[in-house]
Structure prediction request, 459 residues.
Amino acid sequence: MSAGGSPLPAVHLVLDDPGVKALEASYGRAETVQAVREALEALRAQGLRADVGETAQLAQRHLEQRHRPKVRRVFNLTGTVLHTNLGRAPLPAEAVAAATLAMTGPVALEFDLENGRRGDRDDLVADWLCRLTGAEAATVVNNNAAAVLLMLNSLAARREVVVSRGELVEIGGAFRIPEVMNRAQCRLREVGTTNRTHRRDYEEAIGPKTGALMKVHTSNYAIVGFAGVPTEGELAKLAHERDLPFLVDLGAGSLVALERYGLPHEPTPRESLEAGADLVSFSGDKLLGGPQAGIVVGRRVLIDRLKKNPLKRALRLDKVRLAALEAVLRLYADPDRLAERLPSLRLLTRSAADIEAQGRRVRPPILAAVGGRARVALEPCKSQIGSGALPTDLLESWAVVLRPPEGEKRPGRWTEAFAAAWRGLAVPVVGRIADDALWLDLRCLDDEAAFLAQLGDLG
Prediction:
């Protein structure tokens, strides 16, 4: 291509090019014609001239860019295992197979194969959820925010819900508990102070308009120091004395005692139910390690009320995620092998020694790929379990750290540009930037061969 000169080729001439014919076979005629016209318009706008072959190549780039999937695989080297922006928990092979089956043909979704009548889609997972949590009944919706919305609207619409001021959490995307309550047609009655709330604060707030007591697990932050709240058992006893339901929003929702796997303790639904909670909600795609879902377990009479709410249909889970969730729940029947079979737990329990050994393998190829454009070091670091799951508990890890060359006058700008180059690979590599360096935390690098194979394309 060059500036100025003879007119650009006509559209029909470009369409007759063998390479463009191949594009038409892949993308269809309408898309190909549009891409050729866009290529010619771009050339004309820049005052460039090009022959048929050059125009065809530009049209091909237009098509490839337009048809590149936006949901793309990436290497998560941020150091946050359950990363909200990168899809949270990776699914095990069993869940992928189950989801594929559900996507590719008819399945018994709301059909009882024993009696040949209409069934309930919740039944696909309810038995497992009850077995794993000790609940009487269970229901599922599309995420935990929806689960909280459904609980509140079903049990306390147009009434007050008492919550500690220190538990009015905000989750990603500026989504706040008070706003969920408002949409659920409940009135928030906040009690206590940011750092301390007492049982008497709840007692004094209960009145004729009270619909429920609620506890929200602060899974994405922690208040330490001079702080305290009543236990779930104390609040459950108070709620039941006043004939009120006691609701618990656990958020992250681990189904097992994480201490068994060398991880920090996270409250489980079973613990909340045993303490007296009537309903407990939690996520399916955080510590549980499954697909996005909001799960509610607890007393059957209250679950039945949730299922009769018209909102339940609007918020229900589709067949693909139900199939994946059922497959993940089945893995919990074998806790001895859970850390091997559940990808999220396997990544969380990787030893620092194993990660360091991987770092020693991948540092030399990275150093060779970047040449003198960066200083490359292997350094210890801390991984985060998840921004919405145990955010203050860190895991020992190792990272390949890329720093600007000595004498770089604008290290911050260099680091941003270098991070963009890694994100520009065929399988984007997403690290984290700190202290004018790009940190590639290796905890979640589970396909080392594919990672190394594309280093030669690093621009």
